[in-house]
């Protein structure tokens, strides 16, 4: 559904991503993990059109989105929830959610979608008239998810949605992500809680220093002994090299 091939991208002439090959399959819950600064958020900025590849291929459903503007990407069915919280705190919960439908001019459709997201995220209906800023961090995340679903996206991309949440609130967020996935959305998730993310993912991707270094099913990646080394400040060893295509079809393997 979403394909990165040989993607280099960065800021002000220096590359952060250095040859990213990555496929997000339709219907998957693909979880990207990796140490701070690995380039995960940079990857997500490419997906939403906030940044463009310097070189390389970036396609969504067979169409290049390498040069697409954020609005064009939204129209194609990709919606992103950013790493930083970005509700309008002075607007109500309902107003914030309805802003997610700004590309839809059909009021009846907006109303129907709003009812659907309230069903999925009851907090939205319960707190509809409250200022968004009055909600807890976890509740605000839920409102952001609801806003993202107003466009009925094909792909939802989430950058560290559990960041800054206490464990119980984070668990509710993980459950919501699984629910979105079970409802038929393809989900691309960046998660700093490696275990929580990979346990729920159908596909696990490990990034390090701007490249994909390990991939497999979520369980395979989690069980890989190299993961421990990486998170204890080490690095994934070179060698045992395979193409990304082989990595996708087989068990967890490495790319050089
Ligand atoms: N707007 C920017 N301008 C210049 N450099 C940036 C910018 N945003 C990120 N970088 C740099 O790009 C590198 C990768 O950052 P990125 O935010 O993609 O990492 P990350 O994997 O998301 O890390 P984290 O786990 O901390 O969120 C870092 O070295 C960072 O300093
Ligand atoms: Mg990040």
Please supply descriptive tags for the structure shown above.
Rossmann fold, 256 residues, alpha/beta, binds magnesium ion, disordered C terminus
Structure, explained:
With 256 residues, the chain is α/β, with parallel strands linked by helices. It folds into 2 domains: 1-77 and 154-162 and 185-256, Rossmann fold, CATH 3.40.50; 83-152, no CATH class. The protein contains 11 helices and 11 strands. The chain has helices spanning 40-48, 70-76, 93-99, 107-120, 122-126, 137-149, 167-182, 194-200, 218-223, 225-231, 244-249, and strands at residues 2-11, 14-24, 29-33, 55-60, 63-64, 78-81, 155-159, 186-190, 203-208, 211-216, 253-254. The strands form 2 sheets. A 7-stranded mixed β-sheet has the order 6-7-8-3-9-10-11, sandwiched between helices. A 4-stranded antiparallel β-sheet has the order 2-1-4-5, covered by helices on one side. The model is unreliable at 239-256 (pLDDT under 50). It binds adenosine-5'-triphosphate and magnesium ion. Residues 40-41, 83, 159-160 line the site of magnesium ion. Magnesium ion binds at residues 40-41, 83, 159-160.
Give a list of the ligands: adenosine-5'-triphosphate, magnesium ion
What is the architecture of the largest domain at the second tier of CATH? 3-Layer(aba) Sandwich
Shape: globular
Please give the number of β-strands: 11
Instruction: Figure out the total of helices.
Output: 11
CATH H-level homologous superfamily name of the largest domain: P-loop containing nucleotide triphosphate hydrolases
Overall pLDDT: 89
Helix content: 25-40%
The strand line-up of the biggest sheet is: 6-7-8-3-9-10-11
Biggest sheet record: 7 strands, mixed
How far apart, in Å, are the first and last alpha carbons? 24 Å
Stretches with pLDDT under 50, minimum 5 residues: 239-256
Structural class: alpha/beta
CATH topology of the largest domain: Rossmann fold
Alpha-carbon Rg, integer = 18 Å
How many domain modules? 2
- By CATH reckoning, the class of the largest domain would read Alpha Beta
Order of helices and strands: EEEHEEHEHHHHEHEHEEHHHE
> What fraction of residues sit in β-strands?
15-25%
